[in-house]
Amino acid sequence: MNTYPPLNALRIFEAAARLESFSAAANELFITHGAVSKQIKQLEEWLGVKLFDRTGGRVKLSDTGWRYLIQVQDGLDLIANATSQLLQPDRLRRLTVNSTPTFARHWLLPRLTQFRDAYPDVELHLVTSDRDISRLDAPFDIAIRRGPGDWPGHIAKPFLEEWEQPLCSPALLERAPVASPADLARHTLLYADTRPTAWQRWLTLAGVPDLKPASTLHFDRFSLALEAAMDGLGVVLGPMPMAQDEIARGRLTTPLPSPIVPVRAYCWVAPRTAVDDPTVSAFCHWLETCAAGLNVPPAT
């Protein structure tokens, strides 16, 4: 005979654990903070374990809570998938993909027609976010993130290697040529908050760790820094091979062939309960096929 804990308390626990906040869970579920606290307390008493550590008015998942969260999320995902298939058996299969904005804009979107042509019965829902997948507000079938990462309850696989090289607009290079890394001192370097150490890493490997650029510009998203480089505002340390399409269009160029700095690869990430779904498997396989052969070039 199976033993089931209070199901409503499980739903509230999942939200509070995922958001690491009783208040945020209350807002998401449209209930009071007190109701969340009461349900969590009742669940802990029912289980006979402490799911959260409470310190100074703040809550943090205990080690036991983390292990329980993974299993609870798997169970809720199974229920959601089964319900969706039951209610919509004859409708298009909806596939929700959560991608970082830069990857979606510069690599995924230009290739999506290929997937749509191969799988016309799949209704694709593309969402962009830089947040860690454990902090996303909405469920997904596949996430695309740089990794490897710590993704409990999920299966992940690298499919696209990435490396960094300076990129700028051809017009900017005509005005101020760059023949060596030291020439970057005459330029504005473009930074993104999501990759704060990228330039320092590259400059160190290029032999000019103390280089002082003419100026700097900072952006909260890397996609904005890349757009700024295309508009001639400065030099960005850009992602390859994602920027290859913009280079082919003549909007960007690579002024320096080396050093080439390998960075974290892009991975597809799927909930463990969904990884065997035929549509999820098809999309992951399609990503791997598109990326085949796009590897980090040898150092020169």
List keywords for this structure.
about 300 residues, alpha/beta, Arc Repressor Mutant, subunit A, D-Maltodextrin-Binding Protein, domain 2, 3 domains, 8-stranded mixed β-sheet, two-stranded antiparallel ribbon, LysR_subst-bd, transcription regulation
Number of helices: 11
Q: What name does CATH use for the topology of the largest domain? A: D-Maltodextrin-Binding Protein, domain 2
Oligomeric state of shown chains: single chain
Terminal CA distance reads 65 Å
- Strand line-up across the major sheet: 4-3-5-10-6-9-7-8
Low-confidence stretches: none
SS elements, strand count: 10
The structural class is alpha/beta
* Element pattern in H and E: HHHEEHEHHEEEHEHEHEHEH
**CATH homologous superfamily grouping of the largest domain:** Periplasmic binding protein-like II
Main CATH class of the largest domain:
Alpha Beta
Radius of gyration: 23 Å
Overall mean pLDDT: 87
Shape: globular
Strand content: 15-25%
For the biggest sheet, the summary is: 8 strands, mixed
Helix-residue proportion: 25-40%
* CATH architecture descriptor name of the largest domain: 3-Layer(aba) Sandwich
User: How many discrete domains?
Assistant: 3
GO molecular function, one term: sequence-specific DNA binding
Pfam families: HTH_1, LysR_substrate
Domain HTH lysR-type: 5-62
Keywords: DNA-binding, Transcription, Transcription regulation
